[in-house]
Amino acid sequence: MNAPAAFGQRSLTHLDELEAESIEILREVVAETEKPVMLYSVGKDSAVMLHLARKAFFPAPPPFPLLHVDTTWKFRDMYALRDRVARESGMELIVHRNPEAERLGINPFDDGPVHTDMWKTEGLKQALDLHGFDAAFGGARRDEEKSRAKERIFSFRSASHRWDPRNQRPELWSLYNARKGPKETIRVFPMSNWTELDVWQYIYAEGVPIVPLYLAAPRPTVERDGLLLMVDDERFRLRDGEVPVERSIRFRTLGCYPLTGAVESDAATLPEVIREMLVVSTSERQGRAIDRDGGASMERKKQEGYF
Amino acid sequence: MATAFRSEDGADEARREVDAYIEASARKSLLRFITCGSVDDGKSTLIGRLLYDSRLLFEDQLAALESDSRRSGNVAEGLDLSLLVDGLAAEREQGITIDVAYRFFATGRRKFIVADTPGHEQYTRNMVTGASTADLAVILVDATKGVLTQTRRHSFLVHLLGIRNLVLAVNKMDLAGYDEAIFSSVVADYRRFAREAGIEGFTAIPMVGLTGDNVTSRSERMGWYDGPSLLEHLETVPAAPRALAAEPFRMAVQWVNRPSADFRGYAGRIASGRIRVGDEIAVLPAGRRSRVSRIVTFDGDLDQAKAGQSVTLTLADPVDCARGDLIAAPEGTPPAVQRIGATLVWMGEEALAPRRAYALKIGARTLNATVSRLRALVDVNSLDERPAATLALNDIGRVEIDLDRPIPGIPYAESRRLGGFILIDRLTHATVAAGLVEDFPLDSGRGDGAAEGAILWLAGDDRAERARRRAARSRAIGRTVAILDEATLAALNGDLGEADRGEKLRRVREVARLISGAGADVLIALDAAPEESRPGRRIEPGEPEEGEDIWVI
Question: Starting from the edge strand earliest in sequence, which strands make up the sheet with A227-230, in order?
Answer without folding.
Answer: A227-230, A217-224, A245-250, A263-264
